[in-house]
Amino acid sequence: TSAECRELDGLLFDVSDAKIGVNFPPLHPGCRSITLECDEGAQDAVALAPKLLDDYSKSISDFSRYGSDFKPSVTSVAVDATNTSRAGFGSSGIYLANPSIDNEHMKLNGTPEYVGFHRRKLSDEYIDEMIINNPSYLKGKDITSIKKEMGKLRALIQKTKDVAKSQGKYYDKNVETGEPSMQKSWLVENCAEIWAVRDAILQGAKIENLVLRSWDLRRGKIKPFCDNCSITFEGFMTSMD
Fold first, then answer.
1. Which of 102, 162, 211, 235 is deepest in the core (most CB within 10 A)?
2. Are the beta carbons of 127 and 146 closer than 8 angstroms?
3. Are 86 and 201 in contact (CB under 8 A)?
4. pTM (2 d.p.)
């Protein structure tokens, strides 16, 4: 992200005040910034997301949240525009262990175990397990709605895989894994954005109401959607980059 774009990130302007090259993209040659149409609720979410993500990212970088063994490359926040108290957080790196999903620290041996791990975390069966094992977390929540939204997320993930498969693109460039991905180095579900959205859904948010923002911890700058997330969340939400 350029200096010009960083200075305007998260700011709100009336449409009538938009000036291309000043406060409206493109701001410079090669500019990839986008604008978001915001109603009053979305404005609050857009304003809050940077602070929430900054606090979350700092707590990971200083090891106060998950300890020194967990070093993800990307963090994400998904804020519900209809109720900003519902904010989901997520990190990349679930191949080894990702405490942003839950407290289950584990090492996974190869793609099959990895796939089984993330599919279970996104399943209705896992939600039922949470009701039994951690009833206070989902107390008072609309379980039917949560399962419906989780189903939407699973469908969006599958949509991305279908596109990748149609283009002959697979994780690790290995067709034998059977795991299509637009990114050769990670699976669709490895993205921090997926787990931030999942976390928000478990709090009662609906996918279409979410404002999503991600941070590249290694480069210290805002991270736009990768090739997977650009397809996964197309038409539902836009990355604040």
1. 211
2. yes
3. no
4. 0.79
